[in-house]
Amino acid sequence: MPEYEILSGLIRLHILYHASREGLFGLGMIHELREHGYKIGPGTLYPLLHRMEKQGYLRSRERVVDGKQRRWYTTTPRGRRALLEAKARVGELFREIVKDETPEARSHRHHKKT
């Protein structure tokens, strides 16, 4: 994915979100991300999960899922704090780049439609 460098932060946030809600395992997260248009494979995701665990955002344990032994990831207190802060910053950024109502933005959208 050529946009990986730009989108990698969003992927990390997506991981933190799901790990904070119900927990996740690697293959399940690959499928979840693909549903949202991210083409990420095991060679990218698993090292990312391991790094996030080493950095203290995730914790993992072995768990049986659908009859298979899986490494199950959940957020740590640090991961939950990071997610809360990121939500605020993403909201602010969203308002700036998507909801931008400056005259330049309106003009740009108008020219794209015509």
Key features of this structure:
114 residues; alpha+beta; Arc Repressor Mutant, subunit A; 5 helices; 64% helix
Quaternary arrangement of the chains shown?
single chain
- Overall mean confidence score, pLDDT: 86
CATH class: Mainly Alpha
User: Measured on Cα atoms, how large is the radius of gyration?
Assistant: 17 Å
Q: Per DSSP, what share of the residues sits in E-state strands of 2 or more residues?
A: 15-25%
CATH topology type: Arc Repressor Mutant, subunit A
Summarize the topology:
Blueprint (H helix, E strand, L loop, with lengths): L3 H18 L2 E2 H10 L6 H13 L3 E8 L2 E8 L1 H21 L5 H11 L1
Helix pairs in contact: 1-4, 2-3
Folded structure, characterized:
By secondary structure, the chain is α+β, with helices and mostly antiparallel strands. It has one domain: Orthogonal Bundle (Arc Repressor Mutant, subunit A). Helix content is 64%, strand content 16%. The protein has 5 helices and 3 strands. It has a 3-stranded antiparallel sheet with strand order 1-3-2. A hairpin with a 2-residue loop joins β2 (58-65) and β3. α1 (4-21) packs across α4 and α2 (26-35) packs across α3. The protein is globular. 13% of the residues are buried. The model has no long low-confidence stretch (mean pLDDT 86).
Question: Gist?
Answer:
With 114 residues, the chain is an alpha+beta fold. The chain has helices spanning 4-21, 26-35, 42-54, 77-97, 103-113; strands spanning 24-25, 58-65, 68-75. It starts with a helix and ends with a helix.
